[in-house]
């Protein structure tokens, strides 16, 4: 946690992400998979949800060494106990 945010890191040790795909990776229907093997909506949906909650997603990747996604979301203390009215 930092600056009123909480961060979650999700990483793998797969092939990594091609640098030229960084600009498009969160666009709806962008996929590097074969036709019929994916819709390209997963990361786009995640990005939209995180942005609507005031957060951000960062990507770190090195070809041949995998990728890491860091999701950072703001903490709103009024929501921690069911809101300001305790509901």
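Q: What amino acid sequence fits the structure above?
A:
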């Amino acid at each position: 946690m930092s600056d009123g945010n909480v961060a979650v890191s999700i990483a793998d040790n797969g092939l990594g992400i091609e640098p030229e795909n960084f600009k498009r990776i969160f666009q709806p229907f962008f996929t590097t998979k074969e036709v019929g093997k994916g819709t390209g909506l997963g990361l786009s949906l995640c990005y939209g949800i995180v942005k609507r909650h005031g957060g951000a997603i960062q990507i770190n990747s090195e070809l041949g060494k995998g990728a890491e996604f860091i999701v950072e979301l703001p903490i709103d203390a009024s929501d921690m106990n069911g809101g300001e009215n305790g509901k």
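Q: And what stands out in the fold?
A: The chain has one domain: 5-74.
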